[in-house]
Design goal:
The structure is a single chain. This protein is α/β, with parallel strands linked by helices and 362 residues long. It has 11 helices and 9 strands. Helix 7 links the parallel strand 6 and strand 7. The protein starts with 9 loop residues before the first helix and ends in an 11-residue tail after the last helix.
Length: 362
Amino acid sequence: MAGITADNLVPGLIAKALARGFPAGWAHSGGDFAAWQARARQIAECHILPDPALLDVPCGWRDDATEDRGTHVAHQGAILLQGGGEWPALMLRPKGSGPHPAALLLHDHGSEFRIGKEKCIRPLDDAALAQAWVERFFDGVWIGDRLAAQGFVTLCVDALNWGARQGNGYDAQQALACNLMQLGTSPAGVMAAEDMAAAGFLAGLPQVDAARVCAVGFSLGGFRAWQVAALSPHIRAAVSAGWMASLPGLAVAGNNHLRGQSAYWMTHPGLHAHLDLPDLAGLAAPKPLYVEVGVQDRLFPPPAVDAAYDQLRAIWGAADASQELALERPDGDHAFGLARQDAAFDWLLGRLDMGSTGVEIC
């Protein structure tokens, strides 16, 4: 599908908007971190979160099937909602009463809508499609199963349009976005709100130590990980693989961000008249945040990543929490293979006071 071209009005408008800058961003804060963060949070929540009347509220869990996996038990089921709906999900629970640390896993986009939660946790039924996915991006290992073997309760929910909530393919994202915007929200806003609700559900489980709940994701899931850390009080730390950039560096010819469709899930109408993407991530400070983007990742031009990293360093520094921020540029492309997982999860275990002994491969 063609993206924005040079012969229409949009490139000029984008250039003007980006030249204006981000007036509510940290760069224009005057140096008062607490005041900036409070104001920026107000702006972000106003532009991101849907009307509460449109939102579903989790009220329970239904098990549909279970499977003993040695160190933990896999549960296939659904988060039940007060309005009578449900969010299909996979959950891994370590054996023992706990309380256990927990990881909310946020799956990627990848233009593959037939699976969602199965990209992060090995399914109980036919795993062929998911196996091919994890071979391609994760060196053949499900990140949820790795963390569960290390003692984490892990949860991954099908986002709207994926897996058991699958829509009608790539082009139908535009119709979904159009209709949601008529209701005063957006795909990105619904996703953000549902991720927040899933974080609250996970933190409230009796087996979970609510003080050690983190978010972990790759690609779009990486965007979701730092976003839910910024918006949810239940997320105490986050690992984001394969998604971080400053918006001006993404709004360049040929970048996916200008193609539309998949960008709907990362586009909050009106927000970036005020805040850049790293400003939004900065709402998570001083929480521990690990961000990595491969040096050869063609989705994220180096100037866009460098600019974002500079802004994140400034924000965590202002929060007196520089030691809680890890910004990595590993060799490699758009993937989250074993070596990169090892580095991220070792950091995560240390930040959640679990030691840094490495993570066994399931």
